[in-house]
């Protein structure tokens, strides 16, 4: 397999006994590992990908082009997850509507069958047959209602998550983006609000200089177009960030860098 300046990796050596498929398998494993590492550092820890390019290139022996390819593929996957949630809500709505329709029809059948049973002698063979049908129908309805209840709970959860996201977009504005830089600024804002607006304590918690923190705060206020030191505004922002953490869109356990 020909290795050019675009594909050569320092940790994958040429081997005359390897087939093309074996090389591709090693490449797949290697780039998959790098993608997962990049996801953690950018989308969880909030480290800007631009600051990681040199680190990844030096540590893992990849080119800038290869790093950009991994980053763009990762960003595409993350974006597709959010789009997939919208489709899941549509699918759940369709499934619940279908089940509700079936349950309505079967409930009417059950009530009608119950009336017939009351009019039939309990010693007749027809009664025994109809009673079995009635019991089967009750079991069928029980299963469908349980299935509907599970779907409605899942749908309510997804709707709640979407409402939180809409609220977050309204409150955080331009700051509410899925980019690593935005995540970093949101975590900085959260740490700042938790300390009651203390620059010294926040800088110490984030291992930043006060000057570096001041720059981030000014950038945050520029994006928000709000005074984050205002008590009402600060409380609203704090609740919004905590809500994003609650639904899993933000990991507040890992500190912003």
Describe this structure in words.
With about 260 residues, the chain is an all-alpha fold. It has a domain at about 20-80. About 75% of the residues lie in helices and about 0% in strands. The chain has eight helices and no strands. It has helices at about 20-45, 55-60, 65-120, 125-170, 180-195, 200-205, 210-225, 230-245. Mean pLDDT is about 85; it is low at about 1-5.
Summarize the structure.
With 257 residues, the protein is mostly helical. The chain has helices spanning 20-44, 53-60, 64-119, 125-172, 180-194, 199-205, 210-224, 231-246. It has a domain at 20-78.
Strand share of the residues? under 5%
Poorly predicted parts: 1-6
How large is the radius of gyration?
A: 29 Å
Distance between the termini: 41 Å
What's the rounded overall pLDDT mean?
85
Structural class: mainly alpha
> How many beta-strand runs?
0
What is the succession of H and E elements? HHHHHHHH
Query: Which descriptor suits the 3D outline?
Result: flat
Specify the number of helices: 8
What's the helical proportion of residues? Answer: over 70%
Q: Describe the biggest sheet?
A: none
């Amino acid at each position: 397999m020909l290795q050019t300046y675009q594909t050569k990796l320092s940790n994958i050596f040429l081997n005359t006994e390897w087939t093309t498929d074996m090389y591709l398998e090693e490449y797949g494993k290697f780039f998959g590992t790098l993608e997962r590492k990049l996801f953690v550092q950018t989308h969880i820890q909030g480290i800007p990908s631009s600051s990681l390019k040199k680190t990844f290139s030096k540590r893992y022996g990849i080119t800038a082009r290869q790093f950009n390819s991994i980053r763009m593929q990762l960003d595409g996957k993350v974006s597709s997850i959010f789009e997939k949630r919208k489709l899941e809500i549509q699918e759940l709505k369709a499934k619940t509507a279908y089940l509700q329709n079936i349950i309505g029809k079967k409930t009417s059948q059950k009530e009608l069958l119950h009336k017939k049973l009351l009019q039939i002698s309990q010693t007749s063979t027809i009664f025994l047959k109809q009673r079995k049908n009635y019991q089967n129908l009750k079991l069928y309805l029980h299963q469908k209602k349980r299935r509907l209840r599970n779907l409605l709970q899942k749908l309510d959860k997804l709707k709640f998550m979407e409402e939180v996201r809409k609220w977050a977009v309204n409150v955080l504005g331009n700051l509410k983006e899925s980019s690593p830089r935005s995540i970093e600024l949101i975590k900085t804002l959260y740490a700042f609000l938790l300390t009651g607006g203390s620059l010294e304590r926040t800088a110490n918690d984030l291992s930043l200089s006060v000057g570096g923190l001041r720059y981030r705060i000014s950038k945050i206020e520029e994006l928000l177009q709000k005074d984050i030191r205002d008590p009402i505004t600060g409380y609203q922002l704090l609740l919004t960030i905590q809500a994003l953490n609650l639904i899993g869109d933000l990991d507040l356990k890992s500190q912003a860098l």
